[in-house]
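Exercise 7. Predict the structure of Erythromycin esterase family protein from Anaerobacillus alkaliphilus.
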Amino acid sequence: MIKTDQLIDQIAKHSVPFKETQDLKPLINKASNAKYVLLGEASHGTSEFYTVRAEISKKLIKEHGFSFIAVEGDWPACYEVNRYIKGMTSDYTSAEDVLKKSFNRWPSWMWANREMIDLIEWLRSYNEQLEGHKVGFYGIDVYSLWESMEAIVDYFKKINSPEIEKALNAIECFEPFQRKAEQYGISAAFYGEDCMSEVMELLQTIQQNRKMYEEDPEAALSLKINAIAASNAEHYYHTMVTNDSESWNIRDRHMAEALHYIGSYYGANAKGIVWEHNTHIGDARATDMASEGMVNVGQLTREQYGEENVYAVGFGSYEGTVIAAERWGDPAKVMPVPKGASGSWESVVHKAGATNKFIMFNDENKQYFQDIIGHRAIGVVYHPQFEHHGNYVPTRLSDRYDAFIHIDQTKALSPLGKS
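Solution. The predicted structure, encoded as tokens:
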């Protein structure tokens, strides 16, 4: 086992300081060889994680031909952003407008924030120069049960589909639960009162009649993802009250499945960028998640596409501020992020030099970063005063990621309006 002083020395030796995007060129060039570049974050409320990922994404799109960005967000809301950047709608006057109107479900600050505005406007401007497939922006999370079913109904109405009744039946089944996922989960898990058969019938109908929707390929993609989101969300909420680990697996398998469909839509040679929390993009097998039978997008994509075709970049910081809430559903507020705990990854990276830096793990240095060390993870619910009791994930860094970006001092995200 490597000693702390030796680990600090190895970080200092193998890390590269950076001040601007151009300094990240070696990492971006290496990542560009992959089919999927997974860009993480240590929290859902840190400004620099968003801005640095945005600049990396621009480079991958403009200089290396990447086709889309898939994020840890709901498909229906993100699809409105996709429509805006592709010029498919006149419903929105600006990036700020589409973000404010589309992201209404808590925690809305994850995507309805000022840091996203520049990227969304850049994507719209970039797409105006393209012919054929334009760069897309999609949400691959599983939570949008009601929103996805409503999107299916709206699409069926638009095309006068004869299957509209099946979609309405599925929505009607969920109406007694008043969009309260926990209420549905308890009813389904403990009382056998669920809507599984209605959702499955709708999904099967869409799959069987998929050729009916081929006239508009992107609308067909949206219908397909909304259908699997509704089905997997029902399964997720059905499971979450009785089995945390399995509901996690349902969620991450859904995200990997949605990513596959998006990649297929763009073609065999398509390359995509994924924005998600470190806990999703960093290989679960390099953490204590594996001992609990949990998988994640980082593991699943490596297994499906080959390790050489996936490049996972973790993000972290030493101290600063963050946007989060004290309880699920509470208003967000700016909270302090304490200095990294003694002996943690955040602490030793800081001690190797109080500056922004990145490390690319390779055959030359990988061995030095394979000992288990605590690595901070902050969720949408956060209690800084208690973070030492549950916010550090035991991690083998060079197995979990292909590279790591450390931003020494960070500040909170800037939400648009109420969150």
